Amino acid sequence: MKRVIFNQKGGVGKSTIAVNLAAIAAHQGKRTLLIDIDPQCNSSRYVLGAATTEVAPTLGAYFEQMLSFSMFAKEASHYVHTTPFENLSIMVAHPELGDLQSKLESRHKIYKLRDTLKELSQQYDEIFVDTPPAYNFFTQSALIAADTCLIPFDCDDFSRQALYTLINNVKEIKADHNANLSIEGIVVNQFQPRALLPQRLVDELKEEGLPVMENKLSSSIRIRESHERNLPMIHLDRNHKLSQEFLALYGELQAA
Ligand SMILES: Nc1ncnc2c1ncn2[C@@H]1O[C@H](COP(=O)(O)OP(=O)(O)OP(=O)(O)O)[C@@H](O)[C@H]1O
Ligand SMILES: [Mg+2]
Predict the structure, then answer these.
(1) 219 in helix, strand or coil?
(2) Would 48 be classed as within a structural domain?
(3) For a tag on the chain, would you pick the N or C end, based on fewer CB atoms within 10 A?
(4) What's the pLDDT score for residue 51?
(5) pLDDT band for position 72 (50/70/90)?
(6) What domain range includes position 158?
(7) Cα(133) to centroid(ligand 2), Å
(8) CA 13 to ligand 2 center in whole angstroms
């Protein structure tokens, strides 16, 4: 399963959700690969901490080799690294990804990630792709490469507008490039069950027929500790409410 976590709105929980779901999949014995194509490198750092800067080759090198014709292009697995977590591998991002974008675009490299993921999907049961907060070359490449798209949603009105744009973008990619692509679900993050507005928003989205996941994620300050200690929630505190919610969400994805 090749899954992309995408929302062009920033700070809605893409990296947090990608890393925590990947950690759970790996913990449950799935051969799991996390791919960070965001030049901010947040999910790489979440998993690897300070060691991230020492990891090579990165996805910067991977995309760069597409620009220089070589008879000896390296296999995709050359860019995959182990993590401290059993069954969890990673392809790390690099800040230079941002600079490479326009060159990759002008040289029409938009299908390359699809070919790579197809190759890697022979070796991994689950692939999670964390994306930058923009509808750009990298996110389009990821959507073209994926089976499904998971959309984090933070329950505010600006996010709702962004959501409609996003769904149209996904539909366009599906129509033009990837008939296989589906929207797996909208993941409600930092949900406040006692506030009226978020619940009303969620109800309205459901009434519109949008695939809102039943299992929502609460807000917890322990996420900060989880990031700082480079420990996904199930490794930091398995019994924590948010860990249980991530587990339930992963279970829901598996059941579908
Ligand atoms: N469930 C949660 N509870 C508390 N804080 C959260 C939760 N989910 C995310 N956050 C916080 O919100 C911020 C944004 O999260 P994250 O980096 O995962 O979002 P993102 O969509 O990947 O951002 P970007 O668009 O910049 O890549 C982070 O500071 C993170 O700690
Ligand atoms: Mg992010």
Answers:
(1) coil
(2) yes
(3) C
(4) 95
(5) low
(6) 6-255
(7) 7
(8) 7
